[in-house]
């Protein structure tokens, strides 16, 4: 069964408007999830907010957002006040600027979504905006209310559709210069580079989604399946972690690595 549409609205560029639909490009629906139970009764455990001082339960209608300005000193904001500062339109992706593709560093990318035409009538307008970005090597920038917050979003053409990425906020991204500027700029020896490139070539292959399978999830499913059948799956022993030697002859290590790769390829 096809998933329900996550978002419906409009994409707009100046006077060109078309209806669009959007779906998250990733899902956690297949993840193994657990509930917290009372081991004695087998009943689910529920959580409640309590007052940190009186330790009495707090009614939902008494809950309010608070901004801490000092120790035990808060400015209270009602939900209506928070919602009032959001965008007036939560259903229109108004593209107000374009930037060169690849000019936005990957660290700004947050969540990807698939953007598609909402109906047959809007396909032509959708296609012309998509293809114009493709032809000019640009991506569109807009703002949209998503996940209960106003977010900057990037529209990137991909195949027949558009991928809409929510972008991280400016105060969420650290300046890489604070970390990378401390590193030395020395170039490695040419002989070392030659050996490492050979090792990279030996291990280069085509991307496959199987490369990022979750082995822990697979083992958990095995345990759950065994318990369904009334069996107790034996616990796996944690693999012994070998501590690497801090003193390394890089040239010797690379030569051994390349030799091992050759033996693996012949196996």
TrEMBL record:
Domain Ku per the UniProt entry, residue ranges: 55-185
Swiss-Prot/TrEMBL keywords: DNA damage, DNA recombination, DNA repair, DNA-binding
InterPro entries: DNA_bd_Ku70/Ku80, Prok_Ku, SPOC-like_C_dom_sf
Subunit structure: Homodimer. Interacts with LigD.
HAMAP family: Prokaryotic_Ku
Function text: With LigD forms a non-homologous end joining (NHEJ) DNA repair enzyme, which repairs dsDNA breaks with reduced fidelity. Binds linear dsDNA with 5'- and 3'- overhangs but not closed circular dsDNA nor ssDNA. Recruits and stimulates the ligase activity of LigD.
UniProt similarity note: Belongs to the prokaryotic Ku family.
Protein name in the entry: Non-homologous end joining protein Ku
């Amino acid at each position: 069964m096809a998933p329900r549409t996550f978002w419906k609205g409009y994409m707009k560029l100046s006077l060109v408007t078309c209806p669009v639909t959007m779906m998250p490009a990733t899902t956690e629906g297949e993840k193994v999830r657990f509930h917290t139970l009372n081991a004695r009764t087998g009943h689910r455990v529920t959580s409640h907010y309590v007052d940190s001082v009186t330790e009495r339960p707090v009614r939902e209608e008494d809950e309010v957002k608070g901004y801490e300005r000092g120790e035990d000193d808060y400015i209270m904001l009602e939900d209506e006040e928070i919602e009032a500062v959001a965008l007036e339109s939560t259903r229109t992706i108004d593209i107000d600027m374009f930037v060169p593709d690849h000019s936005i560093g990957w660290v700004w990318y947050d969540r990807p979504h698939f953007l598609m035409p909402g109906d047959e009538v809007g396909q032509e307008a959708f296609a012309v905006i998509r293809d114009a970005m493709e032809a000019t090597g640009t991506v569109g920038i807009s703002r949209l209310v998503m996940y209960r917050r106003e977010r900057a979003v990037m529209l990137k053409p991909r195949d027949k559709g558009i991928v809409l990425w929510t972008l991280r906020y400016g105060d969420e991204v650290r300046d890489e210069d604070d970390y990378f500027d401390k590193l030395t700029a020395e170039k490695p020896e040419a002989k070392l580079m030659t050996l490492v490139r050979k090792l990279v070539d030996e291990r280069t292959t085509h991307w496959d989604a199987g490369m990022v399978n979750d082995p822990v999830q697979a083992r958990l499913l095995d345990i759950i399946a065994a318990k369904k059948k009334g069996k107790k799956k034996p616990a796996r022993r944690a693999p012994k972690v070998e501590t690497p030697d801090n003193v390394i002859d890089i040239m010797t290590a690379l030569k051994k690595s390349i030799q091992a790769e050759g033996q693996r390829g012949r196996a």
